[in-house]
């Protein structure tokens, strides 16, 4: 039996990034609750970054494997492989969604604080 080998996600095109960001910006309530649970699990169980999904975290680890422990790398490779079997390039798509959700929060907080809008993608 062949061992699982995570293939690296290919970089998304600017059009694919924009598409995945639009999807994340228009998620319904149930989807947002599921994403929040995903983020909670990533932070509580895998010490991930705040507001980052497990999928984004695993992509980051598989892209930069030597910044992490062997156990983290093996878990990330297995998860990334599994998720890519469900949806091609899943980790990269998740990163685009996480980016969009974080930009929505930054925009809302700046508005609430009375700060001017800024374009963080420049």
Topology:
Blueprint: H1 14-25, H2 29-46, H3 54-63, H4 70-86, H5 90-112
Helix pairs in contact: 1-5, 3-4, 3-5
Give a structural overview.
The chain has one domain (14-112). Helices cover 66% and strands 0% of the residues. The protein has helices spanning 14-25, 29-46, 54-63, 70-86, 90-112. Helix 1 (14-25) packs across helix 5, helix 3 (54-63) packs across helix 4 (70-86) and helix 3 packs across helix 5 (90-112). The protein is globular, with a radius of gyration of 16 Å.
Based on Cα principal axes, name the global outline: globular
Topology order in helix (H) and strand (E) letters: HHHHH
Give start-end ranges of low-pLDDT stretches.
none
Average pLDDT metric: 90
- What structural class do you assign from the helix and strand content? mainly alpha
Our count of helices gives: 5
| Residue share in helix | 55-70%
Cα-atom radius of gyration:
16 Å
How many domains, as an integer? Answer: 1
Q: How many β strands by DSSP?
A: 0
Q: Largest sheet, if any?
A: none
Q: First CA to last CA: what distance?
A: 47 Å
Strand content: under 5%
Task: Note the main attributes of this structure.
mainly alpha; 122 residues; globular
Write a concise synopsis of the structure shown.
The protein has 122 residues and is mainly α. Helices cover 66% and strands 0% of the residues. It has helices at 14-25, 29-46, 54-63, 70-86, 90-112.
């Amino acid at each position: 039996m062949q061992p699982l080998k995570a293939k690296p996600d290919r970089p998304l095109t600017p059009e694919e990034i924009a598409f995945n960001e639009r999807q994340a910006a228009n998620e319904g309530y149930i989807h947002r609750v599921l994403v929040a649970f995903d983020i909670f699990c990533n932070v509580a169980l895998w010490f991930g970054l705040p507001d980052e999904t497990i999928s984004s975290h695993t992509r980051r680890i598989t892209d930069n494997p030597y910044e992490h422990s062997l156990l983290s790398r093996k878990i990330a490779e297995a998860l990334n492989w599994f998720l890519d079997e469900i949806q091609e390039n899943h980790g990269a798509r998740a990163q685009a969604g996480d980016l969009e959700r974080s930009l929505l929060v930054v925009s809302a907080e700046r508005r609430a604080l009375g700060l001017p809008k800024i374009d963080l993608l420049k």
